[in-house]
Amino acid sequence: MPDKSSYQLTRQVGYILRRANQRHLTIFADLIPTLTPTQFAALAKLCELGSVSQNELGRQTAMDAATIKGVIDRLKKRQLVTTRRDTDDQRRLFIEASQQGAELYNNTLAAARKISERTLQTLNQAERKTLLELLTKIT
Amino acid sequence: MPDKSSYQLTRQVGYILRRANQRHLTIFADLIPTLTPTQFAALAKLCELGSVSQNELGRQTAMDAATIKGVIDRLKKRQLVTTRRDTDDQRRLFIEASQQGAELYNNTLAAARKISERTLQTLNQAERKTLLELLTKIT
DNA sequence: ACAATATTGTTCGTATACAAACGGATTTTG
DNA sequence: CAAAATCCGTTTGTATACGAACAATATTGT
Question: Rounded CA gap, B125 and B139, in Å?
């Protein structure tokens, strides 16, 4: 017979993880209202890597094919990225940050740093390091 | 001039938090395929609290009014919860776990414990405690 | 008592997130 | 070389998640 009393929803990793994520999302929306976290992630990787195929970009940013497609579609509609078919592999769609996209990225970089800082602001340096390590470890 | 080179997407809290959450979601779907994490959370709180108003349930499970509505709608469609209008306050909708809902909750409780366990399995006891504390601290 | 305010639930729009299925292109393998 | 397997991007369906606006109801302040 399972012990029903000992399960406390609000102490489970999943629940706390969701709440921490919610808090971060709020901070992100406050400091970078023009981009969502995933849009920013895609743009950041594009600026870092240059030209990448859509699915590869998804892998680099931890989004599955269906998700990255939606993200790119929205960035493209706002002309923050451009797309180009690969001539060698007709399936592949190369994505690149447009100049506007690159500018927006550069202009939001400072805010992005502030987001990380503010998310962790209740922790000291050692705790921040520990948290990131432990989170990485369970991923 | 901002230092562009020092921003590494994959080392930012938000990114790591999202990935950790993804991992947990996968484990959850593996061990409890019949309920989503939020559905389970709602059901768990209902079984704990008995009858609660819809918005109050949302607060107890960290979901806003629009989100909890969708969750309850789906649980209701599957007859896992019942709803009843408050006679005192005509706006209020009371939610209650049905017998089916309570049974499903009891039957999934063991799996729910395994989910938390498996999510944290790469950490020792001290690390688990630390992680939960730090996550709670930034929430 | 009554006007201002707040709360409850609903709806709409936008944006992840992912499973599943698909057609087409490429690569691997027997 | 042909069959099988894989990979590419796309679409559909379901489920969070939340801002914003809304009507109906309750509560508060004067």
Answer: 22
| CA→C1' distance for A74 and C18 (Å) | 18
Strand D at less than 7 A from CB of A89:
yes
User: Mutual orientation of helices B13-31 and A99-119 as an angle, nearest 10°?
Assistant: 80
Three-class DSSP category at A18:
helix
Angle at CA A24, nearest 5°, toward A125 and A46?
95
Q: Which fold has domain A10-137?
A: Arc Repressor Mutant, subunit A (1.10.10)
Could you read off the pLDDT of A54-67 as tens digits, one per residue?
Answer: 999 999 999 999 99
Contact criterion met (CB < 8 Å) for B9 and A123: no
Kindly report the average pLDDT of chain B as a whole number. Answer: 95
Q: Burial, B65: exposed, middle or buried (Cβ in 10 Å; 0-12, 13-18, 19+)?
A: exposed
**CATH number listed for the domain at residues B11-113:** 1.10.10.10
